[in-house]
Amino acid sequence: MTLDSFSSREERAVERLQSSCIMDLSGHADNRFSVTPAVGQPIIETVRCDTVPAIGADAARPMVLRTLVAALAALWKRGERETCFMRIPMKTWNLMLALIAMTALMYAPAFAGDTITVTDMAKRKVTVPKDPKRIICLAPGTLRLICYLGAQDKLVGIEEFEKIRPVGRPYLLAAPELKKLPSVGPGGPKSINGEPDLEAVLKVKPDVIFVSYMKAPNADSLQKKIDIPVVVITYGRFATFDPIIFDSLKVLGQILDKESRAQEIVTYIENARKDLTKRVGQGGAQSAAVYVGAIGYKGFQGIESTDASYVPLEWVKAKNVAKELQPGGHLFVDKEKILAWNPDVIFIDAGGMSLVQEDFKKKPEFYQGLKAFKNKSIYRLLPFNWYMTNIGTAIADAYACGKILYPKKFEDVDLPAKADDIYRFFVGKPTYEPMKKAFGTLGDKVSF
User: Fold this and answer.
1) Residue of 4, 222, 261, 289 with fewest CB within 10 Å of its CB?
2) Could you tell me if residue 357 is left (phi over 0), alpha (psi between -120 and 50 degrees) or otherwise beta?
3) Among 208, 213, 204, 167, which residue's Cα sits nearest to residue 185?
4) CB atoms closer than 10 angstroms to residue 411
């Protein structure tokens, strides 16, 4: 057993307990520990931790017993099943227990009253520390929700994927210091439902692991393997905005003691949707045929990538031509179909803009055959499908769609100012300018 295996708080506890050799504490397969005399010490019968006599009032018993195994717990939880030795000075059992009780004031173990049991988004019952101090986020979108909740101070590591090109992710633009945290594995879309880098995860000693889109059996297996609570969240369907994200926020809020903030986010999103719907008005659905292309889907895509339930269009009651093929969700369509639709207005997700422009050079006749191209009615939207849904950007895009399709009803909306107000609420800082620098002006006409 080495001090390198412990956090700074655990390390102080071990240093306090180390002294002349008197006892061995041994881990057993049933997650309990026995206490036996060390070599050369007077024989004392082996006792289980649950039978060690408590000192003082009975109420102190759980604290004393848990403290007895607290320093060993870190190694035990990390899968090291070999016998661990701790040297505790003692003339009598009471002296040993008194020392342990004092150590409890410095080392704060997780007592039963400090844990909660939640049902995660994989429908698993998971017991976790209440308001954990050390957390990590794995797989797409998990880190974003932690930042929305204002709990990034609890992070002890992030994925390598989160450190590269943060321009499409306002939560990283607002908190660049997160890139300095240790890496907890490669991450990226390919990490979905896969086993993480266990060595990197264990190295940062998280109290809880939050992960998106992991199936229940895999989450159970991971949790059992490293004995750290694993909580699964989800954004729902890929490349869209699914209200199931509200449930993920509430689960995270419950664990992180951020329930009021989680509700604030839900309320803000709902109020934005209501404002957009109210501006359009009852029966105010847009008659112009609209298409949105180049939507990010597990990476950058060209103009054939679209969504029949694209939220910015849904919230302003636009006539999304893709609904002819399916009622909702992401899909790829042939160029011939886009020509057949010949939409009046086309929106381009700026994340795929370079692919669209390259395609234009190869097949200009396709674009020149579109009514929207001839009438210069192709507009730029900011990418919100960037390692799952950036909710703030999706709302900003909805206001841009409203202003373009219903100019009179949105004439009071200044898009850059509105976008910054939205980003300020979600990530604490205005981040429209770096988004504009990377992807162009929100709502601008696209020039080929």
Assistant:
1) 4
2) alpha
3) 204
4) 9
The whole-model pTM stands at 0.76
Burial of 447 (0-12, 13-18, 19+ CB in 10 A): exposed
In the numeric block, the tokens 């070999």 are attached to 82
Phi, psi at residue 184, to the nearest 5°? -115, 30
Contact (CB, 8 A) for 119 and 233? no
Q: What is the mean pLDDT of each run of 10 residues along the chain (448 residues)?
A: 41 41 38 40 35 35 42 42 41 50 46 80 96 96 98 98 90 96 94 95 97 97 97 86 91 97 97 95 75 91 96 95 94 97 97 96 96 97 92 97 96 98 98 96 93
pLDDT of residue 195: 95
| CB contact burial 260-283 (16+ within 10 A = b; e otherwise) | ebbebbbebbeebbebbbebbeee
Which residues sit opposite 292 in a β-bridge?
347
Token couple for 439: 């992807």
Q: What is the 3-state secondary structure (H, E, C) of the chain?
A: CCHHHCCHHHHHHHHHHCCCCCEEEEECCCCCEEEEECCCCCCCCCEEHHHCCCCCCHHHHHHHHHHHHHHHHHHHHCCCCCCEECCCCCCCHHHHHHHHHHHHHHCCCCCHHHEEEEECCCCCEEEEECCCCCEEEECCCHHHHHHHCCCHHHECCECHHHHCCHHHCHHHHCCHHHHHCCECCCCCHHHCCCCCCHHHHHHCCCCEEEEECCCHHHHHHHHHHHCCCEEEECCCCCCCCCCHHHHHHHHHHHHHCCHHHHHHHHHHHHHHHHHHHHHHCCCCCCCCEEEEECCCCCCCCCCCEEECCCHHHHHCCCEEHHHHCCCCCEEECCHHHHHHHCCCEEEEEHHHHHHHHHHHHHCHHHHHCCHHHHCCCEEEECCCECCCECHHHHHHHHHHHHHHHCCCCCCCCCHHHHHHHHHHHHHCCCCHHHHHHHHCCCCCECCC
Token output for 281: 């008005």
8 A C-beta contact, residue 99 and residue 67: no
Q: Which amino acid is at 390?
A: N
